[in-house]
Amino acid sequence: MKFIPILLVFFLSSVLWAAEFFTEPVLLTSIGQSADLHTVKLMFKKAGVDTLKTTVNKLAGAGDVPKNGTVVLVVGASQKGLGEARISTSSEIERAVAILQAAKTNKCKVMLVHIGGKERRGELSDDINRTVAEKADYLLVRSEGDQDGFFKNIATKNKKTYTTYVKTPEGIEKIKSAFGK
């Protein structure tokens, strides 16, 4: 019987921790130049994250990182998107590393969001995905994109928070919870 109150305290403290973990202002950018950024932007809006305190910039750099806020990196490469932006995979990784360093300097939390499923995995994407996943504080991944445990294994190894979702409304609820909405 003593086990139930302990479980309840643990559960409530983890809920409160998640609710206060991410704060505005928010920088939302794509690492890999996929169109997934637009979907994630709508998910954040539906989750109630303040659009006036959210900057969406698909080519954001280290100088765009806010102080004491959140950086959301939407990962998954698109050959078409990279080509249109005239960006190589290696320069996209360099941009990601610079943003991650600026986030650390500016005391921002970093959320990785991967919604692309299998299409945003593989040779083109996984170097980008790995670079961000190893440094992110929180990984929100559409379950279809992690059937091999790629993101889960990185999160476990680096002791980071990892969560998955199946359908977009569930992903929106995860974002709400992470921002305490």
Description of the structure:
It is a single chain. The protein is an alpha/beta fold. It has one domain (3-179): Rossmann fold (3-Layer(aba) Sandwich). Helices cover 46% and strands 17% of the residues. The protein has helices at 3-19, 36-46, 79-85, 89-105, 123-133, 150-157, 168-179, and strands at residues 26-31, 54-56, 70-75, 109-114, 138-142, 161-165. Helix 5 (123-133) links the parallel strand 4 and strand 5 (138-142). The model is unreliable at 5-19 (pLDDT under 50).
Labels describing this entry:
181 residues, alpha/beta, Rossmann fold, six-stranded parallel beta sheet, 7 helices, 6 strands, 17% strand, globular
CATH C-level class: Alpha Beta
Structural class computed from helices and strand pairing = alpha/beta
**Helical segment count:** 7
Q: What is the average of the pLDDT values?
A: 88
Extract low-pLDDT stretches. 5-19
| CATH level-3 fold name | Rossmann fold
Per CATH, which architecture? 3-Layer(aba) Sandwich
Shape: globular
Number of E-type strands = 6
Specify the biggest β-sheet.
6 strands, parallel
Task: Please give the share of residues in helix.
Answer: 40-55%
Strand order of the largest sheet: 2-1-3-4-5-6
What is the number of independent domains? 1
Radius of gyration equals 16 Å
Order of helices and strands: HEHEEHHEHEHEH
Distance between the termini: 33 Å
Strand content: 15-25%
Summarize the structure.
The protein is built from seven helices and six strands; from the N terminus they run αβαββααβαβαβα. It is α/β, with parallel strands linked by helices and 181 residues long.
